[in-house]
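thread: overnight batch results

M.L. [08:02]
morning all. the overnight job finished for the chain we discussed friday. pasting input first so we're all looking at the same thing
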Amino acid sequence: MPKVSQDVDALSPDGLKQLVVLLLEKVAALEAKVAAQAEEIARLKGLKGKPDIKPPSPGKPSGMDKATESRKERRAKKRNKAANPLAVHEERIIKAADIPPGSRFKGYETFSVHEMKIEARVIHYRRERWVTPEGTTVMAPLPPEVEDHFGPDLKRFILAQYHQGQTTVPRLVQFLESLGICISKRQVVRILTENKDSFITEARDVLQAGLGHGGWISADDTGARHQGRNGFCTQIGNDHFAFFATTESKSRENFLSLLRAGHTDFVLGSEAFAYMHQRHLSAPVIAKLAEHPERRFADAQAWAAHLDVLGITEMKVHPDPVMIATEGALWGAVLDHGFLDGTIVLSDDAGQFNVGDHALCWVHAERLVHKLDTFTEAARKAKEQVQSLIWWFYADLKAYRQAPDPRRKAALRARFDRIFKRTTGFATLDRLLARLHANKAELLRVLDHPDIPLHTNGSERDIRSQVIRRKISGTTRSDDGRDCRDAFHGLMKTCQKLGISFWNYLGARVGALAADTVPNLADIVAAQSTG
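M.L. [08:03]
and the structure it wrote out:
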């Protein structure tokens, strides 16, 4: 490598670019040399080189949760997987042939066949038309379930196939045409996106019920595309509900905005100022906000204007006063509407979800240990020992959730310290253990709240359908399409958690005559969360 001048200030822009290129080449060469040396050291010690540790799949980093299941939990899962018997709709008697004389009848042998019938039907409504003596035309009205040229059962089928069946619009159109239904791609898109305000409202009401009545929620996010641009889909839910929202940001401000559950206001209350103090917002800025008599702001525009009037927008200090003040006002609005009152927020340690009374996922914590690369026998043994201790501890936490005991709580806290304060001699592992020990309060939140889960597997399962939809369809084109996709995914997952058939739910909402009555999902979520 040619020698470069040490006087960086004297270099021209082209000279600086050349210097950067040379340094990058040197860094790459050093990295390759270090990797080769690591392989050689492993070979000289009699090892087989770098161990083949594959990155864990989402939700299953090393099998810790499944491996620590009790027999009772495994039996319960098998019972849940058993198929529920369906109602018998038709009974046919098949007579035996060539029965020898003197034979005795011994009843029937039952053989059940599951069948369904899909066919295209065209209904002609012949509406009476009368002309009154005054010359006014009177026409018989259509049935209330008929809104256009496509019936409610067809609309239910299209909605179910697109959202639950995860099909695409072109394939759906092709399938319907093969059945003899004359429908275009544009008409299918209209059925999926137009006049769906009632579904979007119900999805928002479900979120309000879940945030207002649940003892805990978990959250996760994944990439999403809208109008050809990258964004993020955030999931919020628990055992009774699920909610999805696609936005351009995954910041804490965005998460707090979603926790307002449809409200747009900003509130400066005691909780808001406490949040600002906790986030180390400067005292003069807090004083400016506290001294002003106005405490409520209808929307983002009103809040931004207030910050401008106080001169906070122009401040260039750290931390950003606009960001922290906005987060505080959003948190004040969340609590002002009665949401997250005593509710635990469980997450995978992503910073945007760290609000309120926060708890951490043990599966993600253990995953950090599981993913460590080891190159020596001593490091491998240290990692295996720590993993076994964590698995054992995790199994005992699961047992504690089933039968909480104050004495056991104290023992588990002391045992946590012994595991995560230990020194193994494997420097990378020791740093990781110290990092996990710093999260002790959030990892052991379950000791004070045994009802909360130990992991965010539920959120990862929920959001997987959004990941599949992203891979299948890529992007949404309109805001209505984005909002409908999120709303129907949330309603579908909520139905699954409540034990309600999504097919029956869609039929009840679109007016299919054969559909069962399904109450408002928000009412069911509120009742089950408080029950």
